[in-house]
Structure to design on (516 residues):
């Protein structure tokens, strides 16, 4: 029986990427409204400080749900469907229960939390950040449930529903910003997030019930909570995901050390940096995760190496030119996306400087996003924990060492940490997976890097004489660069262009890697 297109890695990656483009497009509209209404002003800095911890917790819960539930569910589901249903219920109760406890606890200590970031800030500023913090706390229990629903749907290869559900968030925030921004100011942002989270929860509850009924109120022995639901693996996963989400928290700690708008510039630059990651790399990692987990269970070495090599090839092909664009033409992107209203030319200059430092790690993080999932699949989470700990230690250490560079130093410290995460993971996985072609990344990195350098030089020479230097000309320069890059890669008949064309053509993209 032929599987659905969206149940294959190729189909899932394309579909999730398509929804990702739509979602990120809405996200960009949302951020454009933010930039227009708030720019790099203090009010938006306060929103970012107040929102960071709840948003970080929600991200942690989402990744924990996926990385804990998918391998556990697939392992149990292959032997006992009743056990899989019990595992699903227990995970839901555990996650939502912890989410509710976190919400209540943080609400009680909200003033202390905000004061830890803003010890030198005026009382009025602290109060605004505290109110935003409390509103965002309402999303945590719902996000906990969403993480379990999403993980269940991904475990059974129904990737499209979690991807679609993300749209609710941006739609609700954008709608409320347009209608009520003047009346509620910056407070309308957390209110929009709460509404979007509730809508997302409702949609995924409906979809997940069609896959596996939750039946929380059914009187049955299987509803008795088992201590086995909380095991050492879950605790390690919680540590990994919690630690890996500390980057924004560490940056917010330096709120008083950098100039006004510094936190906002980090936020806007990171949004642009993360755009290609979220559209493709995260989509690929999401699609790869259950597939490579299944390959591990079946001890299929050809499939494992095929997924591994494909992930490297496609990421280097797409993200090395993206990094060049962000580094050399990032100001053009910022001007097009954000420069209007209260986001002025000076704001563009500050944000572009930050973006340059972020762009240094783009390709490394894009590959690491997939490597991270592979560690979970091969059950080497203890190694991943150590890699994550060292990476975060580097981030914090370089924050202190580079703070004299203001927000640029904070961005550079993030890139240094991300490059380490990739390097350590690459070395270890090559050994653990017994990869035969261990020089693939280096070969692809050099090929695409040299190709990009040549294309950039040609683009500069062409546009210097043919274009006038205005915004339209800068946009055309970006298009010329991409055109030259793809033409050169195609003429060289590099394997990455063949894989991409097959993927876009909805063909069997893994045939050259012996992946079914």
């Amino acid at each position: 029986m032929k599987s659905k297109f969206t149940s294959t890695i190729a189909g899932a990656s394309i579909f999730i990427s398509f929804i990702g483009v739509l979602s990120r497009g809405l996200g960009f509209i949302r951020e454009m409204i933010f930039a227009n209404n708030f720019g790099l002003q203090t009010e938006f800095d306060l929103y970012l400080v107040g929102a960071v911890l709840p948003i970080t917790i929600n991200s942690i819960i989402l990744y924990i749900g996926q990385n804990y539930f998918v391998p556990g569910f697939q392992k149990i589901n292959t032997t006992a469907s009743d056990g899989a249903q019990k595992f699903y219920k227990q995970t839901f109760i555990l996650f939502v229960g912890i989410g509710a406890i976190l919400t209540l606890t943080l609400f009680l200590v909200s003033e202390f939390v905000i004061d830890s970031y803003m010890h030198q800030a005026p009382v009025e500023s602290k109060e605004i950040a505290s109110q935003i913090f409390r509103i965002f706390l309402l999303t945590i229990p719902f996000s906990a449930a969403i993480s379990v629903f999403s993980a269940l749907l991904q475990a059974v290869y129904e990737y499209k529903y979690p991807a679609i559900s993300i749209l609710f968030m941006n739609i609700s925030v954008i709608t409320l910003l347009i209608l009520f921004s003047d009346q509620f100011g910056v407070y309308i942002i957390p209110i929009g997030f709460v509404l979007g989270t509730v809508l997302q929860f409702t949609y995924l509850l409906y979809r997940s019930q069609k896959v596996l009924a939750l039946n929380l109120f059914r009187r049955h022995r299987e509803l008795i909570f088992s201590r086995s639901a909380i095991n050492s693996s879950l605790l390690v996963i919680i540590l990994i995901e919690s630690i890996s989400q500390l980057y924004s928290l560490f940056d917010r700690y330096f709120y008083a050390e950098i100039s006004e708008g510094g936190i906002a510039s980090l936020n806007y630059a990171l949004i642009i940096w993360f755009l290609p990651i979220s559209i493709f790399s995260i989509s690929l990692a999401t699609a790869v995760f259950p597939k490579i987990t299944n390959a591990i269970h079946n001890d299929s070495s050809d499939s494992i190496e095929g997924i591994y090599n494909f992930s490297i090839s496609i990421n280097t092909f797409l993200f090395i030119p993206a990094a060049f664009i962000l580094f050399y033409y990032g100001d053009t992107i910022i001007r097009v996306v954000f420069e209007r209203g209260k986001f002025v030319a000076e704001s563009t200059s500050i944000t572009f400087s930050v973006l340059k430092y972020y762009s240094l790690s783009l390709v490394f993080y894009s590959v690491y996003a997939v490597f991270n999932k592979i560690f979970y699949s091969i059950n080497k989470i203890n190694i991943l924990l150590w890699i994550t700990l060292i990476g975060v230690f580097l981030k914090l250490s370089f924050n202190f060492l580079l703070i004299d560079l203001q927000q640029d130093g904070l961005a550079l410290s993030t890139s240094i940490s991300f490059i380490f995460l990739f390097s350590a993971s690459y070395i270890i996985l090559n050994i653990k997976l017994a990869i035969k072609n261990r020089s693939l990344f280096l070969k692809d990195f050099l090929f695409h890097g040299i190709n990009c350098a040549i294309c950039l030089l040609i683009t500069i020479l062409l546009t210097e004489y043919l274009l006038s230097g205005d915004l339209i000309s800068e946009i055309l320069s970006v298009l010329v660069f991409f055109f030259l890059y793809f033409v050169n890669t195609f003429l060289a008949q590099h394997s990455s262009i063949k894989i991409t064309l097959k993927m876009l053509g909805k063909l069997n993209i893994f045939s050259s890697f012996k992946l079914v």
